[in-house]
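Researcher: Next entry in the queue.
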Amino acid sequence: MTLATCSKDLKLYNWPGITLAGVYETPDDCVVIKTISWSSDGKSLVIVKSKDNPLMISVPFQVDKRLEPTSILKNISARSGVFANTSNTSVAFGNIDGAVCIYDLRKKRIINEYQAVPSSVNFLDFSFEDTCLAAGCANGQIVLYTSNTQPCASYSVPYSHSLSAMTFNKTQSDLLAAGSKEGAICVWDTTKGAALVTGKDHTGTITDLAFYGETVASVGVDGKFINYDLRSNEYTSCYNLNVPISSLALLHNSYEMAIGTSDGQLRSYDRRQITSPINTVVAYNAAVRKICFQPSSNSPISSRPTTKGSEFNQRHNIDAANKPPPASAGDFNPDFSPSSSTIMSIAGDAKDLENIYLHEMLPPSASQIDVQKNSISSEELNRFAGEMDEYLKQHKRKIEDKMLAEFYQMRIEISKQFIELQDKITKSWDGFMQYLRMSNDDEHHSEKSSSVQTFKHAVSDIKSGKTKKTKMKM
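Model: Structure for this entry, 474 residues:
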């Protein structure tokens, strides 16, 4: 078993001994490797660097100490990249300008381009069997794509304005987890648009997430390893590993797991006894950005059927066609087409499809409810429509009343604050005028005193002069 890790360089380690198997050293002008991703057969890695084009590295059965790129994707500029789960030749890339595309390694060209997202694409991940592609943006938004070129749903982590980690469940369909710099986590069922788990139990940035069994685990710079139960939708356990954690990888069908730390350590743990590591290796002199286990024959990725080019598994196509669409928990709500299957199945032909319409997230009106003919009587349908319309009217009135009450209360508070401010200004002005009056009075009094004193001195001088003259005559 091989564990791939990245920071400034790419390093492959033999597991579980954590012995170095191979190294790819990036050029000096490369600051860091942004992300890495295994192909479903475990034979290739896609590497996205902070500078220059993405590249591919083939990983032989016997890894050489020094690894070299097998190909450089010169016509691709990317900030993130991920292999499809059902294809060894399809890779999704996201760019700093919000562009999202799928590149075919065999055809050596872009086979599908999607509507750009609002900001830089920092995270990308395919859902189970590639029915959805999630793009995590620098502005905290997560945009979901299906086989259409336009987004079908949008999500954001509650209590947050950022996105620091994102992943799909690789064993259960349509479960998407995300974490934020504010320490919040959320897991959505994208078929229903419902949040299954929400929590804010980290005191710092959540750096990585992973699903295992009926649990989702989160790690962060606060050193915590926290578990949430997907059945009860609750926080279940928390372990403090006493080191800032930067990345996490769980070995499928095993209790073994690996973590990378912010100071460059690589550690192995047994989830049944997570209080102390089994093995520790100093891998880098900076944070370990990403770690991931090589898919094996029994892993959830490599054990599923793969596609070839634009062909796809017929059984899965039928299942996907009968499956409800990903529902929105944010900005968009898709129209579902039964022809929608995996993203890979229509790669290259997406531009010929009609664009889906994006609607606001509003409750359906009675006229939008699709009821099979002869399933209920027309009277029942009319009664249900009337009840639905009445409910919507009542709900609208409640919202309007609440908004008016809030607005009225806000106006009262602002008026009070304005009156208090006006009183303060008036008092300050009165005090200033009183000060000026007192200053003028003091100055006038001083001038009068000075004049009196001058007059007295003059009279005194005159008297003394007369006295002297009298004495002289005598």
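Model: The helical segments are 314-321, 378-473.
Researcher: Noted, moving on.
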